[in-house]
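Intended use. Records like the one below are meant for learning the mapping from a protein sequence to its folded structure. Do not use them to infer anything beyond what is encoded.
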Amino acid sequence: MSGTLKKGAIAGLQTAWKLSKFIFPITFIVTVLQFTPVLPWLIDLIAPLMSIFGLPGEAAIPLVLGTALNLYSGIAGILSLELTVKEVFTLAVMLSFAHSMFIETAVALRVGVKLWVVLVVRFGLAFLSAIAINLLWSGGQDIAKYGMMPEMTNNPEGWGAILLLALEKACYGILQLILIVLPLMIIVQFLRDYGYMTKFSKLLAPFTKVIGVKPNASMTLVTGLVIGLAYGAGVMIQAVEEDGVSKKDATLAFIFLVACHAIVEDTLIFIPLGIPILPLLAIRVVTAFILTITVAYVWRRAKQKETKGVLQQ
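Structure written out for the chain above:
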């Protein structure tokens, strides 16, 4: 048992160190950008495009905040606006597909998923889902009634206070990362050493087979579904490095998780907005299955044609 704890702790600290190289600078820089003309400029640039999604121009505020920072920032932006139920639901769906883009994209790259795959899938799902909701749903025209308001904080005054706030947020992000990843990696090490990983993979084999990935990617999928991309990255990285998860399976798993990750937290967090959360969850789950199965099928067909062409030569 002591050997398992030691190996798990070492793996957890190593993973936290690897991820902190991305999370610390990204959190610091984006926090600073909130108090510069950069984010307001970006919001003004995006505002005219909001009509494509059936959204008013000011909806660019929560969209940019949630995409650049996290869901909490996006929701805070939504709560500052008077929007209809349909508009809030549209923003919720868009942000569920594309949020924390800087940090979670860095994690995907660390696992080995290509940048263009992450960006195309996440932004593509966000845009297409919003357009579909705008065209297909004629209801939801009542003004949304928010269940609660977040605690308001005063903006820092002066560059010293801004830099201090950015440093605090970045350090807190690393601390939170360690507190989540360290015990998680110890648990995973325990599951590995005592044979539970093999049993778990066999149990989830039908599920992984449906979406076209091998059973050794099961822990990657479950971790992302429960914890999310950023904090589940430790298990994902270890799975790719130690469990022999192929680049193809890692990419397919990430495509699935991009559409549907942290399903408990990222669904319940929208309750204060007064929107129907079960349809939101259903959209994410169904989209994840359809998209991943489709990509796996196309990938398999392309590989078969490539193999056939080689044999004919």
